[in-house]
């Protein structure tokens, strides 16, 4: 648990975001703590993906985004990544033409500590043994689940302080989803990163999150400890289905 | 028989030039999905820089190195100043920029250096032909230089962190930024490298064809045919295609169509490839799962 007056790992204040002229985010306030999982929930088109893009400077934003207390809004996406923010984007962002090994090396592009990178490669193969067997394979030929594993491994090889995950369960078989979420829990415990996870599968996300936000058409309509949100009647009916 | 062998060797020598320029074209094409029609004129301009340095008394290889470096800077600057702001512009706007560049380099060269043909020195000496007389010193030397350039570029892209980052930035700029790669700088480096490769090609062909502002227009056409033949999405294929076009051009020119109609062969290759096999001989169709 962070000390009370230490800044949150990530804090957004009055965050607006737009694609060209079309405004999508209308003043979001949220925080992500170090060593914790924060879930961002909402229906299709609510603005979840857009929120992650706003954090990474991939779209035009207004308002404040602070990372470890320092403003990052307005900075270039690659500079934000080098600060230690890894993003598993919508659609997984695989470098299709390159090999699995090259995809992983790109994940560690921003790092100079060779020994640390080598150790992290070994750790990723511990989490995802299939990746080791497919190192020389063209990444575009991996299955959807394998590409998701590759995307997560690529993001972790940045040695991030903050990990943004956009629908890690998307398109995956339930068993693979469970595997990936188990691994993610291990990663949070073992690596002490902060995670902001976007999920359609709300029950899954609320099971591993300690804080959650509910997004509706670009506004946060509910925020609080994940346990409370899980118990909320309205959320249960609309998003959890029981 | 000896004549055929000689045509084959000359074909390989000029094929190396086409292969270099084809590689430069493919590098830009992979990053921008446009063919840089000005690649040849940029190489021609670089060759004038080399000639100016040599005439000012700089030793050949010194002039060579300075020319490659200056060309790199010019190429990178073109990307930063002209192409970068055009990143999201419609296709025709980019084509307009390329043609504008072509005309600009051509007319500035004509204005600065005049349109008269100028001899350009070969660093490999004038002596008699080698190996029983069917390969000239310049053919052998320029082929070696070309092979060194091609191998160095291949090793750079294959084995270095920067080379990998440049390939990633060309294929997938969005994901590249997310892992911390400054994509704009990578594209500028790519343009610089392409211009540097073109400069070497220009300096290697100039002793054969003489230097004038239109020296590279034919070369660009052969190189483009080579890139298409090998596969415009495959750098290695484009290089092989460049060599093949060199051989086809020389042998076809000597025995089939005659030297006057040689350039038509390039057009024939371009049309045939586009109709029969648009991906080229070695063009890889990337398997993408969605
Ligand atoms: N590139 C874009 N250009 C213009 N509008 C966009 C773009 N991407 C998303 N939008 C719009 O922004 C809104 C929010 O989209 P966003 O992708 O953030 O939703 P989401 O919550 O991630 O939905 P989903 O659960 O379907 O992934 C939508 O109305 C969408 O149409
Ligand atoms: Mg989304």
From TrEMBL, chain A:
GO terms for biological process: L-amino acid transport. Belongs to the ABC transporter superfamily. It comes from the Bacteria. Gene3D superfamilies: P-loop containing nucleotide triphosphate hydrolases. Residues 10-242 form the ABC transporter domain. Keywords: Amino-acid transport, ATP-binding, Nucleotide-binding, Transport. It holds the Pfam family ABC_tran. This is ABC transporter ATP-binding protein. It comes from Limobrevibacterium gyesilva. Signal peptide: none annotated. The keyword Nucleotide-binding applies. InterPro entries: AAA+_ATPase, ABC_transporter-like_ATP-bd, ABC_transporter-like_CS, BCAA_Transport_ATP-bd_LivF, P-loop_NTPase. GO terms for molecular function: ATP binding; ATP hydrolysis activity; branched-chain amino acid transmembrane transporter activity.
From TrEMBL, chain B:
GO terms for cellular component: plasma membrane. Belongs to the binding-protein-dependent transport system permease family. LivHM subfamily. Its main location: membrane. GO terms for biological process: amino acid transport. It is found in: Cell membrane. This is Branched-chain amino acid ABC transporter permease. Pfam families: BPD_transp_2 (PF02653). It comes from the Bacteria. One of its GO terms (molecular function) is transmembrane transporter activity. It is a multi-pass membrane protein. The chain crosses the membrane at residues 6-28, 60-78, 90-113, 140-157, 178-209, 215-232, 263-283. Keywords: Amino-acid transport, Cell membrane, Membrane, Transmembrane, Transmembrane helix, Transport.
């Amino acid at each position: 648990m962070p000390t009370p007056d230490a800044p949150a790992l990530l804090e957004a204040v009055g965050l607006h975001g737009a694609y060209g002229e079309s405004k999508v985010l209308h003043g979001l306030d949220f925080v992500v703590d170090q060593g914790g999982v924060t879930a961002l929930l909402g229906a299709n088109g609510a603005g979840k993906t857009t929120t992650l893009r706003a954090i990474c400077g991939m779209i035009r934003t207004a308002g404040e985004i602070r990372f470890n207390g320092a403003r990052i809004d307005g900075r270039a996406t690659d500079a934000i990544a080098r600060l230690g923010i890894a993003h598993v984007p919508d659609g997984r962002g695989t470098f299709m033409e390159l090999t699995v090994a090259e995809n992983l090396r790109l994940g560690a592009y921003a790092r100079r500590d060779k020994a640390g990178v080598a150790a992290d490669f070994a750790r990723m193969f511990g989490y995802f043994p299939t990746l080791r067997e497919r190192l020389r394979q063209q990444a575009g030929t991996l299955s959807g689940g394998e590409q998701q594993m590759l995307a997560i491994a690529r993001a972790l090889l940045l040695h991030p302080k903050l990990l943004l995950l956009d629908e890690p369960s998307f398109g995956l078989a339930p068993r693979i989803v469970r595997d990936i979420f188990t691994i993610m829990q291990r990663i949070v415990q073992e690596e002490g990163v902060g995670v902001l996870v976007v999920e359609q599968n709300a029950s899954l996300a609320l099971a591993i999150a300690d804080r959650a936000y509910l997004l509706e058409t670009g506004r946060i309509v509910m925020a609080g400890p994940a346990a409370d949100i899980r118990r909320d009647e309205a959320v249960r009916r609309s998003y959890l289905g029981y | 028989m000896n004549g055929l062998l000689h045509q084959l060797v000359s074909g390989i020598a000029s094929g190396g030039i086409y292969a270099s320029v084809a590689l430069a074209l493919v590098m830009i094409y992979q990053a921008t999905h446009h063919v840089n029609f000005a690649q040849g004129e940029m190489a021609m301009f670089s060759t004038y820089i080399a000639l100016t340095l040599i005439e000012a008394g700089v030793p050949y290889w010194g002039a060579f190195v300075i020319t490659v470096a200056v060309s790199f800077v010019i190429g990178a600057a073109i990307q930063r100043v002209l192409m970068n702001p055009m990143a999201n512009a419609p296709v025709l706007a980019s084509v307009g920029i390329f043609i504008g560049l072509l005309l600009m380099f051509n007319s500035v060269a004509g204005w600065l250096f005049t349109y008269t043909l100028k001899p350009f020195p070969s660093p490999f000496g004038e002596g008699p032909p080698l190996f029983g007389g069917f390969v000239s010193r310049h053919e052998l030397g320029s082929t070696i230089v070309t092979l060194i350039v091609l191998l160095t570029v291949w090793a750079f892209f294959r084995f270095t962190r920067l080379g990998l980052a440049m390939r990633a930035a060309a294929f997938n700029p969005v994901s590249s930024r997310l892992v911390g790669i400054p994509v704009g700088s990578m594209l500028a480096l790519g343009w610089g490298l392409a211009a540097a490769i073109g400069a070497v090609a220009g300096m290697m062909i100039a002793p054969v064809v003489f230097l004038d502002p239109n020296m590279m227009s034919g070369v660009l056409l052969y190189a483009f045919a080579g890139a298409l033949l090998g596969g415009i999405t495959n750098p290695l294929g484009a290089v092989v295609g460049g060599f093949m076009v060199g051989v086809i051009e020389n042998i076809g020119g000597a025995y089939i169509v005659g030297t006057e109609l040689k350039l038509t062969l390039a057009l024939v290759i371009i049309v045939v490839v586009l109709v029969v096999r648009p991906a080229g001989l070695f063009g890889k169709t990337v398997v993408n799962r969605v």
